[in-house]
Design a protein that fits this description.
There is one protein chain. The radius of gyration is 30 Å and the shape is extended. The protein has three domains: about 45 residues, Ubiquitin-like (UB roll) (Roll); about 100 residues, Type II secretion system (T2SS), domain F (Receptor-associated Protein, Up-down Bundle); about 240 residues, Type II secretion system (T2SS), domain F (Receptor-associated Protein), CATH 1.20.81.30. It has about 400 residues and is mostly helical. Helices cover about 75% and strands about 5% of the residues. A three-stranded antiparallel sheet has the order 2-1-3. About 5% of the residues have low confidence. The protein starts with a strand and ends with a helix. It is built from 16 helices and three strands.
Length: about 400
């Protein structure tokens, strides 16, 4: 909870600000440990959900930059307190600046870096905090933040490329349907009126086009209501646990996109495991956190089962091999890594392999979508115009 305070120092200087603590007593104790005399303190009202989500969003790119900056400052022998204070005052994102100020306050109050970061799970994930904690325990914080920056940078680049690749086809398909809808509702009705008034025989394919146009003009509102209702149901489904599981499973079942998503999640698993094992985190804990951040409930379930199996004495490769979505080549390479003691190196190789696979799949998808949709749009418009222009041409020929 966030508390707003007014304090004075031993020299009589007044100071105001905010502090995050689990209770009012803990907030007062934290302020007193800084040598401040508390004049007043009260809890701030929680902000509305929309305000938090829309106006306090912190992009992953900012966390990548932050991690690199922390690593650089630590390498320059700058203290943690000074580093976070400096970054807080120079952060362009106001929400991130507020979080870093709170982290600085917590460090002053005696928290460890990982403990201070853990108080902001909406910004610093469980994976991030665990990595920092491992860095503190091993005395390699500078290297840990560099690992984090590299890892988050790779994940950001991979996720952004995949997302952008899916946005483009969605835009082209939406444009296609928009053009076809305008043709059926605005162009075809005017041309079909001329054909029907002529009294001549209408070809079968022209009747189909005119029938679709008539339906959309007179009953299109019901189609729109159905589409809105279907989208609303999907959004509702995405907010339930069973719905999320179903949608995550559906992602993997699409003919082309499913293969892309599978490679994306396998790359994320391998990269995450390699990063955490390199930081000295135990394999059981690494598997657990990987399941939390993989981003798909199907693979999260696999990692949970794998964790339980490894806890029970099974090897990592044997536990993975029991699950069909994990390809045989990945299981075999992990097994080789375990037998040779080079699991981290093998996982890094797998992460690079699947990243290249994702890049190739994205490039292929984008390369195919554009010509296919251009041809489909041209054929669609061509068929529509042919269906109505040929009868009109026959009418004109009959009149002459």
């Amino acid at each position: 909870m966030v508390f707003k305070y007014k304090t004075v120092t031993n020299t009589g200087e007044s100071k105001e600000g905010t502090i995050e603590a689990q209770s009012k007593d803990m907030a007062i104790a934290a302020l007193q440990r800084r040598g401040l005399i508390v004049v007043s303190i009260k809890g701030e009202e929680e902000k509305a959900f929309l305000q938090k989500s829309l106006f306090e969003h912190i992009p992953q790119k900012d966390i990548v930059i932050l991690s690199r900056q922390i690593s650089t400052l630590f390498e320059a022998q700058v203290s943690a307190l000074k580093a976070f204070s400096l970054l807080a005052s120079n952060a362009e994102n106001k929400s991130l600046s507020k979080k870093l100020i709170q982290v600085t306050d917590d460090l002053q109050a005696g928290y460890s870096i990982s403990g201070a970061l853990a108080r902001h799970p909406d910004v610093f994930s469980n994976f991030y905090v665990s990595m920092v904690k491992a860095g503190e325990e091993s005395g390699k914080l500078t290297q840990t933040f560099l690992f984090l920056a590299d890892y988050l940078d790779r994940q950001y680049a991979l996720t952004s490329k995949t997302r952008n690749a899916l946005i483009y086809p969605a835009f082209v398909i939406a444009t296609f349907f928009a053009v076809m809808t305008l043709m059926f509702t605005m162009v075809i009705p005017k041309l079909s009126a001329i054909i029907l008034e002529s009294g001549q025989a209408v070809p079968f394919y022209t009747k189909i086009v005119i029938g679709i146009s008539y339906f959309l003009v007179h009953y299109g509102i019901f189609v729109l209501i159905f589409i809105i209702a279907a989208l609303g149901y999907v959004f509702y489904l995405a907010r339930t646990e069973n719905g999320k599981k179903y949608l995550d499973s559906l992602k993997l079942s699409f003919p082309i996109l499913g293969n892309l998503f599978r490679k994306l999640y396998l790359s994320r698993i391998a990269d995450n495991m390699d990063t955490m094992l390199s930081a000295g985190i135990s394999i059981v804990r690494s598997i657990e956190i990987t399941g939390e951040v993989v981003g798909n409930r199907t693979y999260a379930g696999i990692m949970k089962d794998t964790q339980e199996a490894v806890k029970g004495g099974s090897s990592f490769s044997d536990a993975l091999g029991k699950h069909e979505p994990i390809p045989a080549i990945m299981v075999q390479m992990v097994k080789v890594g375990e037998e040779t003691g080079a699991l981290g190196s093998i996982l890094k190789t797998l992460a690079k392999f699947y990243k290249r696979e994702v890049d190739d799949a994205v490039d292929t998808l984008v390369g195919l979508i554009e010509p296919i949709m251009i041809v489909a749009l041209g054929l669609g418009v061509g068929v529509l115009l042919t269906s109505v222009l040929v009868p009109i041409y026959n009418i004109a020929g009959g009149i002459s």
